Amino acid sequence: MDLLIDSARAEDAPALARTILAAWLETYPDQDAGISEAWIRAHRGDVVTSEGIAQWQGFIEEVERQPGRRFCRVVRNGGEIVGLLCGQRAESVSLGPMYMRQEAQGRGIGRQLMAAFLAWADDELISLWVTAYNERAISFYKHYGFEDTGERHLWRDRLPNIRMTRPAGGGQRGAKP
Fold it and tell me: What pLDDT sits at residue 76?
């Protein structure tokens, strides 16, 4: 598998949307939380509709117009998108979404994506939401100096999420990929 990090292009929007839905289907089913494939399709399937794809196309076009305010990189395996990391800057920097298909995990590409994102964020305060039972993602973010703020949110009254932040200046860890 030859993985390549690349800038997202407007024409990538349909493939990016399919990757997001596929990553949800791989990552989030959890019987205890009541998160099934059907629930995911009902609540995230809109990402692959024409409206969802148009939203992603608009976001990517905004990245191209205002690269200081929007960030989006994709991971390509040949012609297929198998991962992405996007973010934006307003009062502070928000990381998300970040998804990696299972076939691309454990190959160091997430570290490369994070290094590119942290360089873009330029040592500002960064915040994100992560699913509470996604221990692999939580551990990954902790490696880069993100800490649990204690803030919780049930997305769509079911999916438990926690807020994590990385202080301005990056904290003590995670400066090196």
Answer: 97
* Domain annotation covers residue 32: yes
pLDDT at 123: 87
Q: List, in order, residues 6 or more apart from 134 with CB less than 8 Å away.
A: 27, 28
Residue 56, CA atoms < 13 Å, CB-side half-sphere:
29
Asked if residue 29 has a cis previous peptide bond (ω within 30° of 0), the answer is: no
The answer to whether position 42 is within a domain reads yes
Q: Which pairs from 140-143 meet CB under 8 Å and 24+ separation?
A: 140/110, 140/114, 141/166, 142/173, 143/173, 143/174
Question: In 27-79, at which residue ranges do the beta strands (DSSP E only) sit?
Answer: 70-77
Residue type for position 72: C
Rg (CA), the chain: 16
Q: Give the Å distances, CA to CA, from 106 to 30, 39, 52, 102, 127.
A: 22, 27, 29, 8, 24
Number of structural domains found in the chain: 1
User: Whole domain around residue 119: which residue ranges?
Assistant: 3-166
pTM, entire model: 0.92
Span 36-59, average pLDDT = 97
d(CA 85, CA 75): 9
> Would 172 be classed as within a structural domain?
no
3-state secondary structure (DSSP) of residue 39: helix
| Position 118 in a domain | yes
**CATH number of the domain enclosing 77:** 3.40.630.30
